[in-house]
């Protein structure tokens, strides 16, 4: 068993039951997700989902890490990141039978997303019928204007190199 904790810094920490820190996760995507407000996994514990105060949903694939968590080289892969709401994500869950993620926000809306690619299906209470099988139409909610960031498997974490020049450069 592994315990997960979400933090205001935007990171997730994975802990052993004995209380030892096993892994620290930070979102890879370019958009800042902000402080995390909610965590969940799917039933089979393949995905770890987090919601943020800024309205983002981040999805990690944790399968290989859980299979062999003792090996330090096993990575947790960030799979998706998208803006789901314009305000804080208050709750979320993964429904495996339909392969959807349902998010609830402090803005009062409950929205449905495709779990594999973050495509928006609609919201509870809308006038049109929810069609959960059509993933070809790429639409967004009216208050969200950026598309899902799909993180490629070969993407590597960016190491920030900071230079501190301590001499005056008159040409600059």
Automatic annotation (TrEMBL):
Name of the protein in question: WDR64 protein
Keywords: Repeat, WD repeat
Species in which this protein is naturally found: Piprites chloris
UniProt key word Transferase: no
Gene3D superfamilies registered for this protein in UniProt: YVTN repeat-like/Quinoprotein amine dehydrogenase
Presence of keyword Repeat: yes
Entry-linked SUPFAM superfamilies: WD40 repeat-like (SSF50978)
Domain IP5PC-F beta-propeller, first and last residues per copy: 33-115
């Amino acid at each position: 068993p592994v315990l997960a904790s979400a933090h205001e810094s935007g990171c997730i920490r994975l802990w052993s039951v004995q209380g030892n820190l096993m892994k620290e996760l930070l979102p890879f995507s370019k958009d800042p997700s902000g402080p995390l407000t909610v965590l969940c996994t799917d039933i089979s514990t393949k995905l770890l989902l987090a919601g943020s105060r800024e309205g983002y949903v981040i999805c990690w694939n944790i399968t290989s890490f859980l299979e062999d968590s003792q090996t330090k080289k096993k990575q947790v892969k960030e799979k998706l990141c998208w803006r789901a709401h314009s305000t804080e994500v208050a709750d979320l869950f993964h429904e495996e039978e339909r392969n959807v993620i349902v998010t609830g926000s402090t803005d009062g809306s409950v929205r449905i997303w495709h779990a594999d690619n973050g495509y928006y299906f609609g919201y509870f209470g809308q006038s049109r019928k929810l069609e959960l099988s059509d993933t070809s139409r790429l639409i967004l909610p009216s208050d969200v204007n950026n598309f899902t960031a799909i993180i490629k498997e070969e993407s590597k974490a960016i190491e920030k190199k900071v230079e501190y020049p301590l001499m005056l450069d008159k040409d600059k």
